[in-house]
Amino acid sequence: MSEVPENLKYTSDHEWCRLEDDGSVTVGITDHAQQALGELVYVELPEVGAEFAAGDACAVVESVKAASDVYAPLGGEVVEVNEQLEGEPELVNSSPYDEGWLLRLTPADPAAMDELLDPENYEQVLAEASD
Amino acid sequence: MARKTALFAEHVAAGARMVDFGGWEMPLHYGSQIEEHHAVRRAAGVFDVSHMTVVDVAGPQALTWLQTLLANDAGRLESPGRGLYSCMLNPQGGVIDDLIVYRLSADGYRLIVNAATRDKDLAWMQAQAPARDFRLTERGEKIMLAVQGPAARQTAAACLPPALAQAALALPRFGCVADGPWFVARTGYTGEDGWEIVCVELAAGKALWRELLAAGLKPCGLGARDTLRLEAGLALYGQDLDEEHSPLSSGLGWTVAWEPASRRFIGRDALLAERERGPAEQLAGLLLLERGIMRHGQPVRTPAGGGVVTSGGFSPTLQQSIALARLPAGASGDCEVEIRGRRRRGRIVEPVFVRHGQPVAALRGQD
């Protein structure tokens, strides 16, 4: 069983989002996603300042098995990336919701957070996927 | 419905993540592919490779047939208890499969071929055997284990019947011993020392698996098997080898026995012509000098022309991406690999990255 924290928003592509006090949004991949990918050996993150529309490929996570795109859950400008992942991509496996965060962005439209999945809706996506 | 090996329930009990591989449900890993990889490089691991195809050939004309069928010469197996690696070619010189042939007795041989190629291999073998005086028998019911790593033989010996263990410990590389339901060969697919063990009594084979784990061998899945063989520069059929390419253009020229010239093996004429004009391609090693991971199918640009990554991935030993690539003959030095739309710098190297647990000398300090 994978962990789905209560305080986050989700996408059906298995990204999570956390609204920070300053209005920025931290993005990562879910526990389910890291389990499905297997051990990560490389993470490619965007430049700070890069702008993405919702649904754009904004990062790449590569496991021992394969490479996968990470899609921007909402449009906005990247204000910080997790540089620790350059040397320790395995943090995404060991701590997907904390030390393994990928990037932080300033959303173009803060209301877009409301469009994302609640934890219970995301749990439903996972339940349907395992049927 | 995917086929299961006799150890399926053991894998599930050991926490394996199972995947489909060539029609077989096989363990990918038991938690951490990278830890399994390191266990084999530093100590010992055990792989269930029961999906491999084992074919026994026996009879007065078995050797004559093998000498036609294989590009390497089974006649070099001067006594029972020896094995050699060979390609099986089509008349155009393309590789139908790669295999190991062992001599079991005066006129008995064992071929171990790949799992995914079983059907076409058996059909090809049968088609090349019109009215010959020998029997071809597939060993369907069996457990086959590979114990690999610097400590593998010593640890596994304690789990085998004593007389067999003693004989197995005395084997030279590529040597083999058969004893009742057991067969042990000093071969493998990881670049480390070890044995491949076949047991045609399933209960005894299962008991051996349990004893090997109890003795401290780490169960390892196909994921680690792939990264280990890639570091060792060992070709994978279907990726690095195929029917469109000959052994001469796949880094396996050394496995072709040209002498005696009177041995008319299938594909010989095509290989002779290719050797005459010089192979157009080579299977080279690539080391990525930038961050990223090379993968099967990615284009490669060299000063001598374009090529393609045939097997790529992350090397747990070198902590960087390595690959095998089909490149124009003569290509050397630096190259560019197109990874997900971006060109990354790479270096063309000999296709061996790790030998006996250590990075090969030429690669040290290259990054």
Task: Pick out its properties.
heterodimer; A: about 130 residues; alpha+beta; OB fold (Dihydrolipoamide Acetyltransferase, E2P); six-stranded antiparallel beta sheet; 9 strands; about 15% helix; globular; B: about 375 residues; Gyrase A, domain 2; Alpha-Beta Plaits; six-stranded mixed beta sheet; six-stranded antiparallel β-barrel
Give structural notes.
The complex is a heterodimer of chains A (131) and B (367). Chain A is 17% helix and 32% strand. Chain A has one domain: RNA polymerase II/Efflux pump adaptor protein, barrel-sandwich hybrid domain (OB fold (Dihydrolipoamide Acetyltransferase, E2P)), CATH 2.40.50.100. Chain A has 131 residues and is an alpha+beta fold. Among the domains of chain B are: 138 residues, Probable tRNA modification gtpase trme, domain 1 (Gyrase A, domain 2), CATH 3.30.1360.120; 107 residues, Aminomethyltransferase beta-barrel domains (Alpha-Beta Plaits, 2-Layer Sandwich), CATH 3.30.70.1400. Chain B is globular and about 55 Å long. The longest helix of chain B has 13 residues. Chain B is 22% helix and 34% strand. The model of chain B has no long low-confidence stretch (mean pLDDT 96). Chain B is of the alpha+beta class and 367 residues long. In chain B, 46% of the residues are buried. In chain B, helix 2 crosses helix 8. In chain B, the strands form five sheets. Chain B has a six-stranded mixed sheet with strand order 11-12-13-10-4-14, sandwiched between helices. Chain B has a six-stranded antiparallel beta barrel with strand order 15-18-17-16-19-20. A five-stranded antiparallel sheet of chain B has the order 6-7-8-5-9. At the A-B interface, strand 4 of A face loops of B.
